[in-house]
Amino acid sequence: MKKTVWMLISILVLMALLVSACAPAKPEAPAKPSLPPGPAFDSGCQMDDEGTVMPVDKKSDKPIKIAVLGLENNPFWIPVKAGTLKAGEILKPYNVTVDWIVPGDDHTAKVFGAAIESAITQGYDAIATIAGDAGMAPYIDKAVDAGIPVATFDSETATVNKRLFFMGGDEYTLGYTAGEAMAKALNYKGKVAIITGFLSVEAHELRRKGFEDYMKEKAPGIEIVGVVENQDKADVAFTQAKDFMTAYPDLNGIYVTAGGPFGAAKAVEDSGKSGKVWVVSFDMVDETMEFVKSGTIYATIALDPFNVGRDPAIRLYNYLVGGEVPKCGKLFSKANVVTKENMDQYYTPSK
Amino acid sequence: MSQSPSSRFQTSLKTLLRTREAGVFLALVLLVIIMGFLSPYFLLSENIFNVLRSMATIAIMAIGMTMVIVTGGIDLSVGSVLAASAMLTARLIFYTELNPWLAVVVGIGFGMFLGLINGFLITRVKIAPFIATLGMLSIARGLTYMIASGLQGTVASNIPMRDPAVNFLGAGYIGPVPFPVILMVILVVIFSLFLKFTVLGRQIYAVGSNELAARLSGVNLTRVKLFVYSLTGALAGFAGILNAGLLSTSATNAGLGNELDVIAAVAIGGASLAGGEGTIYGAVIGAAIMAVLRNAFVLLKLPVYMQTIAIGVVIILAVASDQLQRRGSNRH
C-alpha cells in the first residue's frame, strides 16, 4: 500500500518536472526586449519621407539580418529589387545585412509561408514580404510571436494579422490622383468619359471612384458624360473612345482605369483630336508610353517601385534599433504623375 | 404598309419578310430608327462607319461560325485562334527578316492549321465539337502567351505590329470608309455566294439537316467538316491581323471572350444551334445589332451596370422577334 502511494507521488513529481521543463520560460520569451506596439492595422497615410527615409543614427551592437521576400516573374520587379539592394547599401555601415530572397515564382502562401518559416529558422531579425494571399496571415503571426517584426509590401491580404506596417499603392488614391491630373489638363472644366477595365475587379472600381470623387470635390466644372467597361482590351477602348467623341463632339478627356489605354489614345489621334481630347491612364506599358511621348496621353499614373523595394528594410531597422513606430499601418506609396516632360525620370523601355 | 402603290414592291417585300432573316432584320431596322430619334449623332456617317468597323472582326468570324453551326457543330476557339495567329504574325515581322505579307500568310495559315486540328478531333477522334474546341480555346491562348514570350521564359507581353502596309488592313481608310469594313463586305458576299451556288456549300446544309441522309446520298461528311473548321480558323486568323493592325499591337488578351459574341451574332441571325439552318447575312445582321447596342451605351449614356443587362435583353428580344415572325408567316 505504502509502496503504491510512494509510486504515485513519484509519478506526480516526475510529471510536474516534465511539465515545468516543457512550459515556456516566460520571463525569457521576448527575444528583442521592449519592442513598442505597432500602429492600428487599418490606419493609412502617406509618408513625407518616402524614398528618402534614412536609418536612425544608432549603430546596432550586434549584427542584424533583414530578409526581403519578393518575386522576379515579371519586369515590374526589376526596380523593386534594385530598391532593396540600395537599402542594403545604406544599412551596411549600421552593422546590417539585407538579403533579397526569391522563394519561388508564384505569389502563394504555400511558397512565401515556407520562406517565412525558414527565415525564422535562419535567425533573421526582421522580415519584409509580399503578402497578397490570405493564407499568409498565420505565417506572419508566427514570426511576430517569435519576436521578429514583419512588414508587408506591394500587396497584402485584408485578413488582419500582426504585421508592423504595409507599404504599397492605394487604388482609391491612385484614382484620385488621376482625377487631379485630368482636372489640370482640362483647366478644371469640360467633359470627361471613363473607360473602366472590369466592373468585377475591386481595384478598377476604386480607381473609378477615386477619380469621380476628385471631380465632385475639387473640380465641379468637369462633367463625367459616361462610363463603359472595356475588359482591359485596347481594341474595345478604341471603339468606345470613338463613340464618346461622336456622342460628345466637345469632349475634352478620356480616363482609362486599367488595361488598353493606348487604344483610346489611338482613337483620339485617328480622329485628329490630339491636343483637344486628353487621355489619362495608369502604368508604364511600352505602348502607353509611346502616346505619353507623343502627348496624346496627358499623364499616366504609376507608383515608384524602387521606393517600395527600398523603404521597408530601413523602416524595420528603425523600429528594431531606434524603437520608431510607423505613423500608420498602411503606408501608401506616392502616385507619380508621369508626363511627357518627366517621363525619362521614371521610364526605360522594355523592348 | 397596306396600300403600297406598286404591286411589285409588295411582292418583293413579301419575299423579304418570308426569309429567315426577316424578323431579325426588322429588329435591326427598328433599333436604328429608335436610335436615330434618341440621338442626333447616331445617323452621322462617321458614327455609322464606327459601328461598322467595330463589328468587322466579329462579322468575319461569324462567316465561318455560321457554316460550323449549320453543320450542327460549334467552335469555341475563335477568340484564342485570333490572338495566336496575330501574335505569330507580329512576332515574325518584329523579330525576323521575313517579308511582312508572308508573315501574314503564315499567321492565317496557323489559324487554319488550328482549325484543321479542331476538325480532325471532331471527325476522326469523334470528340463532341463543344469539347474539342473548348480544349482548343485554352491551347491556342496558351500558344499566344508562348509566342509572345518567345519561349525564353520572359514575361508574355504585347508585341508591336511594325509594318504600316499590313496595319492598313485594320487601320486604314478608303475615303471615309474604314478598310476592314470593305474587307468584311467582300468576304460576306463571296462566302454567301459560295454557300448558295457551290456543291460544297449545299453539302454543308445537307450535313446539318440530316447527317445520315447526307451520307447515304454520297456526301463526304469528314471532308465537309474539316473544311468548315479549317475555314473558321483561317477567318479567325484574318480577323486577328485586322485587330492587331488597328492598334499596331498584337495583344495577349486580344479576342478574349469573342467566341460568345460570334456565336450570339449567328444565333441572333436566325441560325439554329441544332444545325441545318442559318445564313451569313443573318449573322451579319446579328453582329450589327450588338454593335449598334454597344454604340448606344455611349450615345444614350446608359448607366454602366445596366449595359451588361441590356446586351442580354436585346439578344433575347431579337431571337424572340424572329420566332414570332416565323409563327406569323407559317399561318399563311
Describe it.
The complex is a heterodimer of chains A (351) and B (332). Chain A is 41% helix and 20% strand. Chain A has 351 residues and is of the alpha/beta class. Chain A has two domains: 37-168 and 305-334, Response regulator (Rossmann fold, 3-Layer(aba) Sandwich); 171-302, Rossmann fold. Chain A has a seven-stranded parallel β-sheet, sandwiched between helices. In chain A, strands 8-7-9-10-11-13 form a six-stranded mixed β-sheet, sandwiched between helices. The N and C termini of chain A lie far apart (90 Å). In chain A, 46% of the residues are buried. Chain B contains 14 helices and four strands. Chain B has a two-stranded antiparallel ribbon. In chain B, strands 2-3 form a two-stranded antiparallel ribbon. The longest helix of chain B has 27 residues, at 221-247. The mean pLDDT of chain B is 90. Classes of the chains: A alpha/beta (351), B mainly alpha (332). The A-B interface holds A 73-75, 193, 196, 199, 225-229, 231-235, 238-240, 242-244, 246-247, 249, 259-260, 262-263, 266, 270, 285-287, 350-351 and B 39, 41, 44, 46-47, 50, 53-54, 57, 155, 157-158, 160, 171, 243, 246-249, 251, 253-254, 256-257, 294-295, 297-299, 301-305, 307-308.
